[in-house]
Backbone:
């Protein structure tokens, strides 16, 4: 399997690893069956993501997609972070092998799950429900 230089860089030196103790929102997606589980922690102030951390159990592609996704949403307003797509994650990493594309879906879903958690904690259940977060979209976990 051939990985891009960016994938190898984010796997070898992942950005924003860890957890945020007083996180505004926490999202966990994945499935032990496929071996990739992502947990995303967001600190949100004035509808802007001021900090983001992740913990991922999985392959190198799962770690790389988590790392790049956190870079892409850090400092962004929620409205922009919600536009993050798995395709944008793949493009930012200069591609992924086809069998690893589900990792980019997990990264997108982890971000949305953390934002949905934030919405629920703040009484915005309708907004959270609109995000329709679950891992059923990826072929490894469906």
Residues:
């Amino acid at each position: 399997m051939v990985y891009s230089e960016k994938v190898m860089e984010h796997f070898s030196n992942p950005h924003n690893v860890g957890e945020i103790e007083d996180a505004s929102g926490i999202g966990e997606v994945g499935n032990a069956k496929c071996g990739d589980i992502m947990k995303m922690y967001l600190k949100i102030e004035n509808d802007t993501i001021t900090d983001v951390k992740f913990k991922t159990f999985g392959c190198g592609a799962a770690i790389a997609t988590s790392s790049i996704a956190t870079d892409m949403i850090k400092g962004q307003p929620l409205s922009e972070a919600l536009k993050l797509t798995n395709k944008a994650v793949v493009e930012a990493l200069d591609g992924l092998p086809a069998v690893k594309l589900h990792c980019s879906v997990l990264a997108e879903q982890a971000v949305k799950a953390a934002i949905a958690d934030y919405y629920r904690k703040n009484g915005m259940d309708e907004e959270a429900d609109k995000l329709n977060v679950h891992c059923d979209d990826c072929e490894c976990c469906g």
